[in-house]
C-alpha cells in the first residue's frame, strides 16, 4: 500500500490543477458548441431560439465565410513561408561567430516585446499615403507612390510585410537554439570528405534542424491563424472587406450584428480547422524524427 501511495503521490498534488485547467478549457468549448445551435442576440427580451444546424448551413452557403477563410489562409500561409525562410537564414548567419552577434540578437526581440496594437499604429503611420515613410522611400527611388492599406489589392501584402517584420525574429531565435544542439562531429567528417558549405547545409544542418523548424512553424502558425489585433487596429477588415479574416468576421458578427449563435458556429468551424492544421504539423514533425 505504501509503495503504491509513494508511486502515485504526484497525482495527488497535480490533480486539482489538471481538473481546473480541463474545466477552463472544456467549458468554453462546450458552451460555444451548444450556442452554435441557437439563434441569440444576447437580449433579455428575446430568448435564445433552437435552430439546429441552420447556422452551419448558412455559414457554408455564405460567400462571406469563404472569403474570410481564404483571406485567413492567404495571410497565414504567405507570412509563415516568408518568416520561416528569413528566420532560418538569419539563424544560420547569427550562429557563426561574428562581432556584435549578441547585441543583434537582443535587438531582434524588440518587435516581439512591443504590444501588437502599438506596432500596428506605427505601421499605420508608415503606410500613410501622404507623409508615410513607405511612400517617401519610394519617392527616393523615383517609384510611383502606393495606397498600401487603402488599396484592395495591396492591403493584404502590406499586412503580411508587417507580420513578417514583427515575427521573423521568433523563428530565428528558436532556430538558433536548434542549431546550438547540433553536434560538431558530422561537420568535421563532412569537411574531411571535402563537402562544401552548401553540401554541409543540405545534408547535415537542414535535416537535423527540421524538427526544430517544424516546432517553430507550428507555434507561429497557431498564432498567425488567430491574428486579430494588428489587422483590426490598421484596417478593421477593410477596404471593402479585403482584409477581413475569420477572426474579424467572428468579432463583427458577434459584437456588431449581435448574432451570437452564428458567431459560435463560425468559432467551432475555425476551431476544427485549427486542430486539423496542428495535427498535420505534429505528424510532419514526428515523421521528420521529432517526437514519438
TrEMBL record:
PROSITE patterns: ABC_TM1. GO terms for biological process: transmembrane transport. InterPro entries: ABC_transporter_permease (IPR051393), MetI-like (IPR000515), MetI-like_sf (IPR035906). Residues 69-281 form the ABC transmembrane type-1 domain. GO terms for cellular component: plasma membrane. It is a multi-pass membrane protein. Belongs to the binding-protein-dependent transport system permease family. This is Sugar ABC transporter permease.
Amino acid at each position: 500500500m505504501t509503495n503504491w501511495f509513494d508511486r502515485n503521490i504526484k497525482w495527488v498534488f497535480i490533480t486539482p490543477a489538471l481538473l481546473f485547467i480541463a474545466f477552463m478549457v472544456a467549458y468554453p468549448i462546450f458552451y460555444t458548441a451548444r450556442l452554435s445551435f441557437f439563434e441569440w442576440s444576447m437580449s433579455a427580451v428575446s430568448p435564445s431560439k433552437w435552430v439546429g444546424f441552420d447556422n452551419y448551413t448558412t455559414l457554408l452557403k455564405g460567400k462571406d465565410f469563404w472569403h474570410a477563410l481564404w483571406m485567413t489562409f492567404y495571410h497565414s500561409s504567405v507570412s509563415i513561408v516568408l518568416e520561416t525562410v528569413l528566420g532560418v537564414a538569419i539563424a544560420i548567419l547569427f550562429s557563426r561567430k561574428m562581432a556584435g552577434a549578441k547585441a543583434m540578437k537582443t535587438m531582434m526581440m524588440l518587435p516581439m516585446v512591443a504590444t501588437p496594437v502599438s506596432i500596428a499604429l506605427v505601421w499605420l503611420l508608415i503606410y500613410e499615403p501622404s507623409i508615410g515613410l513607405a511612400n517617401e522611400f519610394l519617392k527616393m527611388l523615383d517609384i510611383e507612390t502606393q495606397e498600401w492599406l487603402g488599396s484592395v489589392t495591396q492591403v493584404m501584402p502590406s499586412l503580411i510585410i508587417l507580420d513578417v517584420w514583427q515575427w521573423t525574429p521568433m523563428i530565428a531565435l528558436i532556430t538558433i537554439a536548434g542549431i546550438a544542439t547540433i553536434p560538431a562531429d558530422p561537420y568535421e567528417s563532412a569537411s574531411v570528405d571535402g563537402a562544401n558549405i552548401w553540401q554541409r547545409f543540405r545534408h547535415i544542418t537542414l535535416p537535423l534542424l527540421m524538427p526544430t523548424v517544424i516546432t517553430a512553424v507550428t507555434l507561429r502558425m497557431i498564432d498567425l491563424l488567430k491574428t486579430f489585433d494588428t489587422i483590426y487596429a490598421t484596417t478593421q477588415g477593410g477596404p471593402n472587406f479585403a482584409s477581413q479574416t475569420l477572426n474579424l468576421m467572428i468579432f463583427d458578427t458577434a459584437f456588431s450584428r449581435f448574432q451570437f449563435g452564428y458567431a459560435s458556429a463560425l468559432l467551432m468551424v475555425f476551431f476544427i480547422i485549427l486542430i486539423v492544421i496542428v495535427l498535420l504539423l505534429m505528424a510532419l514533425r514526428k515523421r521528420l524524427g521529432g517526437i514519438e
